[in-house]
TrEMBL record:
PROSITE patterns xrefs: ADH_SHORT (PS00061)
Name this polypeptide is given: SDR family NAD(P)-dependent oxidoreductase
GO molecular function: oxidoreductase activity
Taxonomic placement: Bacteria, Pseudomonadati, Pseudomonadota, Gammaproteobacteria, Chromatiales
Xref: InterPro entries: NAD(P)-bd_dom_sf (IPR036291), Sc_DH/Rdtase_CS (IPR020904), SDR_fam (IPR002347)
Length: 254
């Protein structure tokens, strides 16, 4: 991973910050990546495959924003060593990390608990809970090197009030809320890292379309409409805010 950290001369709310976004290939992760870049951040784009991320990279670069970086990372198969190696690459390239945004998610189907396949349960828990934990843990030393670091876990309404058939995905999102609260308490005293969860609401994404194929996708907002709420939490506006289970309301984190 190589990049030029030249700054956007126009400035922005995230000027000179280095921010890692998972799930940057499409949907919410892509929208958040584009919004962060537009606000002056050097964005580390992470998803399964480097080639898939190149169009997002090109879109940011061609717009004249700070040159992004690409960090391929398969959350389903990555081991603890892989996450540590990824953090080491970020450290060697940038020397610190100012923001970590967990947008990657996987909900392959809806199913009754009675019928849930155990191996699929473990896979969904791994992508939506275990992988975010391991990546966050690996990146904590880099986040502590920043003066004002922010971790944002993407939440979901089904991880705050359980709904039938959401199975392992809902269980994982409940776990994310617990992880957020524990980490926020452990980092609160230093005041250098803030940790929050943010529920963006139901959006027009490929995951939603796969779960509800008969639903009109235009009945839900585009992910770009909520991206600024992530910028809010990652930048100076979010200072002093930690340990909060937030939601997006009228484009803001509340």
């Amino acid at each position: 991973m190589s990049t030029d950290q030249s700054s956007n001369s126009n400035g922005g709310r995230l000027q000179d910050r280095v921010i890692l976004v998972t799930g940057a290939l499409e949907g919410l992760g892509r929208a958040v990546s584009l919004a962060c870049a537009a606000e002056g951040a050097t964005v580390i784009l992470s998803s399964f495959d480097q080639a898939d991320l190149e169009p997002v990279y090109d879109q940011i670069f061609d717009a004249g924003h700070p040159e992004p970086a690409i960090l391929p990372l398969n959350l389903e198969t990555a081991t603890e060593s892989d996450f540590i190696a990824a953090a080491n690459v970020i450290g060697d390239t940038f020397g610190r990390l100012d923001g970590l945004v967990h947008c990657a998610a996987s909900a392959p189907f809806l199913s009754r608990i009675d019928d849930y396949d155990a191996s699929e349960w473990e896979r969904v828990i791994r992508v939506n809970l275990n992988a975010p934990f391991m990546l966050t843990q690996a990146c904590l030393p880099l986040l502590r090197l920043a003066e004002d670091a922010s971790i944002v876990f993407t939440a979901d309404r089904v991880g705050r009030q359980g709904l039938a058939y959401w199975g392992a995905y809902a269980a994982a999102k409940f776990g994310i809320e617990g992880l957020m609260q524990v980490l926020a308490e452990e980092t609160r005293e230093s005041g250098r890292i803030r940790v929050n969860s943010l529920d963006p609401g139901v959006l027009r994404t490929a995951m939603r379309a796969s779960l509800y194929p008969g639903e009109d996708p235009n009945s839900h907002p585009d992910p770009a409409t909520v991206a600024d709420a992530y910028v809010q939490l990652l930048g100076p506006e979010g200072r002093g805010l930690t340990g909060r289970a937030l939601r997006v309301e009228h484009g803001r984190a509340v």
